[in-house]
Amino acid sequence: QVQLVESGGGLVQPGGSLRLSCAASASTFSSYTMRWYRQAPGKERELVAVTTSVGGITNYADSVKGRFTISRDNAKNTVYLQMDSLKPEDTAVYYCNARRVGLGGAMEYWGKGTLVSVSS
Questions:
Q1: CA dist., res. 107 & res. 3, Å (int)
Q2: Measuring CA to CA, how many Å separate 17 from each of 30, 68, 90?
Q3: What digits encode the pLDDT tens for the residues 24-40?
Q4: Cα gap 75→100, rounded to integer Å
């Protein structure tokens, strides 16, 4: 079982920045592909950014490209989401997700989320 704990959310004005962190309990953290999702009120959960376990390849939703940066520190078992030029439409609960596929199938874990509010 892997526990994921997000932090760094809060209230920020439009144009501001926040950095989210997700700390994982797994010693095998480096073997997991890590993703950030978000869910705005009344909307479905959407994928925001991903960083792979091998090569650290990253990808982003079109809505955040050029503004958000996902990174990981395998020595600290932590993945980050740097969010710049925030917009009111970025307001959502942000969730960390860890997933890997092994011989026994896929293993997937979720954090409880951290709230980001962008408002003046």
A1: 12
A2: 27, 9, 11
A3: 998 889 999 999 999 99
A4: 18
